[in-house]
Amino acid sequence: MALLSILRYPDPRLHTVARPVDQVDDRIRRLVDDMVETMYEAEGVGLAATQVDVHERVIVMDTSDSRDKPLVLINPELVARSEDMNQVEEGCLSVPTIYDKVRRHARVAVRALGRDGQVFEREASGLTSVCIQHEMDHLMGKVFVEYLSPFKRDRIRSRMLKKAREDKSPA
Ligand code: NI
């Protein structure tokens, strides 16, 4: 397994629309395993392949407290969305240190392939529901800060660019 590097907002590659996975083969299983390792290392609850610059419809997440229940969603599709909405504070490994509230469906049902290539359906609420919607946005090239006001987004963009410059220059 290997740690993958995570793209940081406002990297334009984060706006790439991912294509469906043709076949869950060794290459995809390796990608899934590397993404799971990368997510745990970065202490995130979810990671989309888009964030590691692989533009295929693959998501990993783990919203458990024990951090030992990875959920793998390959070619995910929402098959149901609740009418009631929730507004919960979100963060993103591609936008470190930034947290803000986004309106999401309170509950969703997702259909996807697992790491074993088998199709399954799952209903989710709470953090898992938020996470599924957040990660599926990544696969469409959308980062959560794009739900915020243009003013906030510009401020975040400047802050991220400044941080990238600081990270690059020697201490
Ligand atoms: Ni994210």
Sheet with the most strands, sense and barrel status: 5 strands, antiparallel
Give the strand order of the largest sheet, numbering strands 1, 2, ... along the chain.
Answer: 1-2-3-6-7
Structural class: alpha+beta
Strand percentage lies at 25-35%
Radius of gyration: 16 Å
- Count of individual helical segments: 3
Shape: globular
Residues in helices, as a percent range:
25-40%
Count of extended strands? 7
Instruction: State the end-to-end CA separation.
Output: 31 Å
N-to-C series of helices and strands:
HEEEEEEEHH
Q: Which small compounds were modeled alongside the protein?
A: nickel (II) ion
How does this structure look, described?
By secondary structure, the protein is α+β, with helices and mostly antiparallel strands. The chain is 29% helix and 26% strand. The protein contains three helices and seven strands; from the N terminus they run αβββββββαα. It has helices at 26-41, 126-139, 150-168, and strands at 46-48, 58-61, 71-81, 85-90, 100-105, 107-113, 119-125. The strands form two sheets. A five-stranded antiparallel sheet has the order 1-2-3-6-7. A hairpin with a 5-residue loop joins strand 6 and strand 7. The longest helix has 19 residues, at 150-168. The protein is globular and about 45 Å long. The protein starts with 25 loop residues before the first helix and ends with a helix. The relative contact order is 0.18. Bound molecules: nickel (II) ion. Nickel (II) ion binds at residues 92-94, 134, 138.
